[in-house]
Records
---
Amino acid sequence: MADVRLSLWRGDASGGAFVDYTVPADEGMVVLDVVHRIQATEAPDLAVRWNCKAGKCGSCSAEINGHPKLMCMTRMNTFAAGEEITVSPLKTFPVVKDLVTDVSFNYEKAKTIPAFKPKPKEADGTRRMYQEDIERVQEFHKCIECFLCQDVCHVIRDHDENKPSFSGPRYFVRLAALEMHPLDTNDRIELARAKHGLGYCNITKCCTDVCPEDIHITDNAIIPLKERIVTRTYDPIAWTLRRMRGKPADLAAGEPEPPSA
Amino acid sequence: MAEYETHDYDVVVIGAGGAGLRAAIEANAMGVKTALVCKSLLGKAHTVMAEGGIAAALGNVWKEDNWKVHFRDTMRGGKLLNNWRMAQLHAQEAPDRVLELEEWGALFDRTKDGLILQRDFGGHRYARLAHVGDRTGLEMIRTLQNHAVHRGIDVFMECTLYRLLTEGGAVSGAFGYWRASGKLLLFRAKAIVLATGGVGKAWKITSNSWEYTGDGHGMALDAGADLIDMEMTQFHPTGMVWPTSVRGILVTEGVRGDGGTLKNNKGERFMFRYIPDFFRAETADTEEEADRWYEDKRNNRRTPDLLPRDEVARAINAEVKAGRGSPHGGVFLDIASRRSSDYIKRRLPSMYHQFKELADVDITKTPMEVGPTLHYIMGGVRVDADSAQSTVPGLFAAGEVAGGMHGSNRLGGNSLSDLLVFGRRAGLYAAEYAKRIAKMPRVDDGQVDAAATGMLAPFGRREGENPYAVHADLTNTMHELVGIIRTRAELEEAITRVGRLRERAQRVGVTGTRVYNPGWHLALDLLTMLTVSEAAARSALMREESRGGHTRDDFPKADPVWGTKNVVVHRRGGQLELKLEPLPPLPAELRPLIGEDRPTGKVAVATGED
């Protein structure tokens, strides 16, 4: 079979450059196969993350010809013969080495989301939920944490300075999953506005476009959250009830992180 | 002496799949200082790839189901080589562990009356697997991950531990490196939980990821612990076979649970020819009855497509060898002719996606091509059933790295439940053990120095052989010689070759720096894989019978005497030593649950005119 050629970004935090590699092709190869073949034959120190090789773990995220994608789900036969193919690390996160970036931003944001807190069980000791009531949350639970949505989001892609006050689409999906969970009793709506920066999102749907799990991030997670914030913040009846019942006060930005357990 | 950083913990859990996460959660809940250490990013461990479900006798679909039936199925599926006490605890506690996930936010698919839905799987008498479509592992790992994060457990991501340290025969710590920086680190610990999974990367065709290099098996041997049943490897019957680049990727047993049937290139449902006596009473022997079973499970017996994995893998292997395979060397798995497109996409969304994207096959219209792929190792660290403690004080093991629970063959769905049940137990008993130790054990500088020197040695051989080349030769060796069907001559050849590969592995070199250097990581993992491969091959040579995941062409029958013995591997003076030890005897009160008949071994089938 013919050879395949890839142009891989090699380097570290101090800088780097694209390096061309040519290796023998196999039937049905994906980009990750080619990267592995380069690693096994020409560049054993080539840094790349992967695990499942089947689109289930979200480890092998990279930018292929500038587009955020999973390397394991990008078939080589989707490129035209002779087309130049570049593979580079996610731009939004600091490079560690080659295709590996420091994605700890995401794990830090995850710590700031208050935990699931279920309501009491049914009288018979069970938890009854109906399929039609959980399906919209199950869509969010499909997230494989590949962080492609975080990578593509222009709020942080080109603006490091927004990172402290903006958690990104992945965590809006997580907030929505908790908010819409039929059993959950925690309230994260004000938090979504004040601490996670939902207001920065101007619904360009870039995150939805790159999601390998086809989660409708913008339509099903972000917009409903935005609507809940609007209702909460500006609906006078809701405002009055909140005051009367003494629900948790608005959390201004800059206050300490909420307890997460 | 090399530089390293030091961390002190009561309990260090190595591995952050289902077992490791569950162990860390339990240890943390016990109030001891707990660290969770994993080779990948958090949430990427092998558990995330589990598809079909978690086996637990919840009784939501079949009221008749209970722990006793689950215990029976597990023991019979394991061809009675299981540690009965582990199988009992597993069956008894799995329902609570599943319901606990719901308390932590998991959303399983539901029955019509709002309870957790359960699906059929191989070897389980009743529909028993709690699931979320075909991405149950993702739901489980994410639920545990979020819960662990909310508990504030310290997580050391992309950190590989390479050696356990001992003091006076008990655990005192672990030594390893940060993958990103290559810097070395020492954990001083009162107790350690191994939750490192299996060793599939020693085989060529596998569903396992790069992480599955037998780290826990190797570290346990080094620390003086025993391994048992290392000859018991599971080839999952249905991995993808085409295109070449995806060979081995898992196709969930849920496809068969939900209506898929296996066919050869003549369109025959060949599984009817491979029904062993041991499962005959509960298996349909005509296509008509099997077809009726899909619609009326109460009055018909189950299809042989859902026999335990060892039986199905051997049958597929035999069909292919007899020339009745599919074009790319597998057989056909057909769900399209029984189920609607909507049903398939709803029940098996990731299978649909996987075949569409990676193989240009629409499984709602055409059959899949599938064949066996190395998926799991039943053998592992010998542990006390109740506490999950190994024979080394302070060293615990849970999940795939532990041995005994599954006997000679694991039933599908029993892994996720195993992770939860014994992950919790390992965390609990490790924490209790740590509480009984007054002060942090002393760490022996000599052991640390030896570990550091060994780990950095490949950098002193920059001109050495490429570790990837040695790894490729190991995977070929294990695939060809320690496969589904084994013989004495092939196993002896495997042991010789592994010995030669070890000499090469000790001379491999690495290029580049210590910063995120996979070549270096593989150079170290290779030594562990070779040790575990040797343990597997030598155990397989010793067991002169066919049982579960171990089939000897030269000893095709199951032998009742062998059925009472474990092959035990121990390391002494750098050499592996093997011995036989009796299985813990099954108590009289449990005996009636599993029946009086005994497995007979490989099914003899006429090979046909081809």
Note: Chain B touches chain A through 68 residues (CB under 8 Å).
---
Amino acid sequence: MPDRTTTDPTTYLSHLELGEPDKTFLDSNELIINMGPQHPATHGVLRVILKLDGEKVLGTECVIGYLHRGVEKIAEHRTYAMFNPYVDRMDYVAAVSNGLGYCEAVEKLLNVEAPPRARYIRVILTELNRLASHMLWLGTHALDIGAITPLFYTFRDREEILKIFEKYCGARLTTHAFRIGGCLYETYEGFEGEVKKFLDFVTPKIDEYEELLTTNRIWVERTRGVGVISEKDCIALGVTGPVLRASGVKWDLRKAQPYAAYAEFDFEIPIGQNGDTYDRYLVRMQEMRQSLRIIGQAVERIPEGPIMAKVPKVIKPPVGEIYHSIEAPKGELGYFIVSDGSTQPYRVRVRPPSFVNLQALDIMVRGQLVADVIAVIGTLDIVLGEVDR
Amino acid sequence: MLDYIKSYLSSDVTPGAAGNLFWAFVYILLIFLGLSVAVIAMNWLERKILAHMQVRLGPMRVGPHGLLQPIADAIKLLIKEDIMPAEADPFVFWVAPIVVVITTFTVFIVVPFGPTHAVTDMNIGVLFMLGVSSLSVLGIVMAGWASNSHYPLMGALRSSAQMVSYEIAMALAVVSAVLMTSLNREGTGTLSMIGIVQAQQVQQTWFVFKFFPLGLIAFFIFAVAMIAETNRAPFDLPEAESELTAGFHTEYSGFRWSLFFLAEYSAMIAVSSIAVTLWLGGWLRPFPHWLRGEPSDLVFSLFPGLTFLFLAAMAFYSTARMPKHPYFRVQTIGLAGFGAVLALVGLILFVRPVRDRIQDIYWFSTKVAFSMYMYIWYRGTFPRYRFDQLMKVGWKVLLPMGIGVLILTAFVGVLL
């Protein structure tokens, strides 16, 4: 058995090996570059190995796992209620959506349903969280492409959302806002008024972002025709969320398989045509406006009543398995839970949208330039906490 | 010796033209000092202005309103460990920042801050400036190559390609401005920097307004090319932080890095000076012919002092707004002291002999400062171009425009 320790990193690469192993990169036109895990534009600790010909990308390989915490394994040693806060740590940018997916999955397993008021609160908070997630995406994506100012604008406005979360449940980022069977906390006094005030506050702000970017010539040139992915490829790779919709597929779980109270609201699914970075940008901007619409309707019509369903103190679901998925800001977030009838799940498998969407990176950047890799990583909107779990 | 020093004072040419080495040396020292101070000030201003554009405060901790931040940064950079990568080529790695700094500083030999306020006046001034400033590409390529690392290498390649291709459009714009010095009854064609400003004085127009809109277009071409030439946003690909971490100076730290920093900002000031000299009337004050005569001369000569008094007033206003907590006492006193120094400078600038001497330098610096502000503004507004798009703008847009403007300038100049 030869020693695996070597100073030449190229020997580790599977499909990126140079033709002749005794030659260095200087002997070929190809250059192998390690982008990450410590790189300012990989949104955390993603490592991308790039094979380049000059500036042209010949192939990529993602190396993930730097943020692996074994969330799914932890679930097997926690009760259903104890695991609830852990899911917030996966996609920490959209913690509320993660919690909603998990709670609804367990509710489905238990065959209980959250009361209407709880479902409305869930919709309001989840949509606020979608806004927060999209704002963070927009800021960092623009920063990657070189526009540094939108980042500070979006963070300023995201702060208002986090303030509402903090007032509701005491946490800003990893909220643990929902419980199995409903919500633990009743809305605080003036909640509706504050959310309405926020809607009035944020609508002109979104116009402001669009003013900075949508018709900016450099922005359009940098994003149009970059990272194109076809409808077919999207479906074959299992890509979901805004990335799929920008390719022209009208698929949104909030409409397709309505959960929580989404069936009761009037909103549209924005779609794109070309499946490029610019369309994904437009789709997400439209989605932010649609989220505002949903929140507005929910705040108007929020019913009175209990916020918690009758759930036993010790949650012991019947033997069986369940798959439940929701439309998280980044795509389809699914939970597959196997119960053996005990207080702890036998197995929890998460279908994280970031992880699945990341697969499309290679197809999207092949033949493009290094600068486009950065743009595409940004437009995929990945969160490494969710990719690695 | 003393006579040698004194003899220059009565002359009205640059020390270089008078052949006075002593005063040339003094001028060089002054420019070196002034430039270092300008870079330090620019560092603070850029961070502050950019911060206010982005709804944040910028440096606020070191000194009142972060005024001492550049000094703290400089000290930090000077006492940092000197790191040289093991695989680097030591000599080239060592010499690269020096090449960059020397070339950018050499340019300032011919920059005319006033009719006599320049180290020397070469009859090939413009050519000298373009030639020497483009030598800094060499230092950048050396830095990228010597680091023996992928990211710096790519940064250096991008940088050299970009600077070489934008130089052509830049040169065409410059040539059209040089043409304007000769295409009229009074003017005599010249490449001398001082001669070009004097031509604008004689022809009673800044070249940016001459043959409207031809001068404006040439100025625009130069303004775009000079951003690309100095690797600033939106053309900052060589050091694109989100792509190449830091570009050609990724492996540099401490003092060597600060040399690159110094060179970058000096280069910005240098190309801005070219633009000001060629198109914006150099040291000439606004409306030197239209508003001629004793009263307007007096009004315009008060501007330098008024500017400093205005800055002092801002400092005093901020002093009054400082929190009244004992924790801020030192800072409040410091800011008041700073304001007092500014006010004193302002008052000195009202004294007759001083204000007559400082006029040209003041107007030149003001125009350069405006150009520097535009640099910061671009950085706060635009996303970054991609490499191929950058080349497209350079070769397919600016170059044809430059040729067109040059030909049209020649035609219009001959016909009028």
Note: The CA atoms of residues 253 and 327 of chain A lie 5 Å apart.
